[in-house]
């Protein structure tokens, strides 16, 4: 019903007939910006108002709208271009973020591999040293076992001689005395073979410096096939600095990494 009423009203207003005076709408009131008939022009409502023919009002108003329309079209083109640029910028942001993420992943995978290799190498060196020291300990244990057996035999012989008859005791005294004067073997103390502190001294710093030597060689450009573009790339570790003096314990080492 509302739509029907509005349509009927539009048809009546566009019929070119004044609703108040049933006269043809031939003039346009410039002050009120509305169509009027000759009777409306002479009425009190439009006293001292300016009027012009309908066709002239149409031309003038169309010129006004045309100028405004041009401004709107220019603004529309500017907005469309801005939207397109923003969309392209957004795509570029996503693209570069994906490329950098891929590069970061590759860099850390390389670092992880270097760390694993370095750990395996150090474990191998440690196991080799452990084996060498264990072999030395086994040899010392065997020597000590032989020494214990010899001491037990000597002690048993001396105890038997002390129980012998006086004449026999005196006859064998010199030989027994010489056996009793035991000469200890070389130092078999294992205390000097227990520690492995050399493997922990400055461990983190040495590993980081070695990683810097292996990875920190910057290249001007590095091609990333997944992204299809060339991106500038530098090594992940460019500088290692001491922040405080090294303590005796390995865990006391402090350092600073400057990432590029």
Give the helix/strand layout.
Blueprint: H1 2-13, E1 27-29, E2 34-36, H2 38-42, E3 51-53, H3 54-162, H4 166-171, H5 173-180, H6 203-215, E4 219-224, E5 229-233, E6 240-242, E7 255-257
Antiparallel strand pairs: 1-2, 1-3, 4-5, 6-7
Helix pairs in contact: 3-5
Concise account of the structure shown:
The protein is mainly alpha-helical and 260 residues long. The chain contains six helices and seven strands; from the N terminus they run αββαβααααββββ.
Number of domains: 2
The end-to-end distance, rounded to whole angstroms, is 72 Å
Strand content: 5-15%
Q: Which structural class matches the secondary elements?
A: mainly alpha
Across the major sheet, the strand order is: 2-1-3
Give the helices and strands as they follow along the chain: HEEHEHHHHEEEE
Low-pLDDT ranges: 219-260
What is the arithmetic mean of pLDDT?
Answer: 77
Count the E strands: 7
Task: Walk me through this protein's architecture.
With 260 residues, the chain is mainly α. The protein has two domains: 2-79, Classic Zinc Finger (Double Stranded RNA Binding Domain, 2-Layer Sandwich), CATH 3.30.160; 85-257. It contains six helices and seven strands. The chain has helices at 2-13, 38-42, 54-162, 166-171, 173-180, 203-215, and strands at residues 27-29, 34-36, 51-53, 219-224, 229-233, 240-242, 255-257. The strands form three sheets. A three-stranded antiparallel beta sheet has the order 2-1-3. Strands 4-5 form a two-stranded antiparallel ribbon. A hairpin with a 4-residue loop joins strand 1 (27-29) and strand 2 (34-36). Helix 3 (54-162) packs antiparallel against helix 5.
């Amino acid at each position: 019903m509302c739509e029907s009423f509005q349509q009927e009203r539009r048809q009546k207003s566009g019929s070119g007939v004044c609703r108040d005076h049933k006269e043809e709408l031939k003039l346009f009131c410039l002050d009120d910006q509305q169509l009027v008939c000759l009777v409306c022009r002479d009425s009190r409502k439009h006293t001292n108002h300016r009027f012009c023919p309908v066709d002239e009002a149409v031309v003038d108003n169309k010129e006004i709208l045309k100028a405004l329309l041009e401004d709107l079209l220019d603004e529309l083109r500017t907005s469309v271009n801005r939207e397109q640029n923003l969309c392209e910028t957004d795509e570029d942001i996503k693209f570069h973020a994906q490329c950098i993420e891929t590069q970061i992943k590759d860099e850390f995978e390389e670092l992880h591999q270097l760390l694993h290799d370095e750990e395996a190498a150090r474990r191998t060196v440690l196991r080799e040293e452990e084996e060498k020291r264990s072999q030395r300990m086994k040899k010392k244990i065997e020597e000590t076992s032989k020494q214990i057996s010899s001491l037990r035999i000597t002690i048993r012989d001396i105890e038997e001689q002390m129980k012998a008859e006086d004449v026999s005791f005196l006859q064998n005294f010199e030989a027994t005395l010489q056996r009793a004067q035991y000469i200890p073997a070389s130092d078999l103390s294992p205390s000097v073979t227990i520690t492995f502190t050399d493997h922990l001294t400055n461990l983190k710093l040495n590993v980081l410096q070695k990683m810097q030597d292996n990875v920190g060689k910057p290249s001007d450009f590095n091609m990333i096939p997944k992204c299809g573009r060339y991106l500038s790339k530098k090594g992940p570790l460019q500088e290692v600095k001491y922040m405080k003096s090294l303590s005796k314990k390995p865990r006391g080492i402090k350092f600073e990494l400057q990432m590029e």
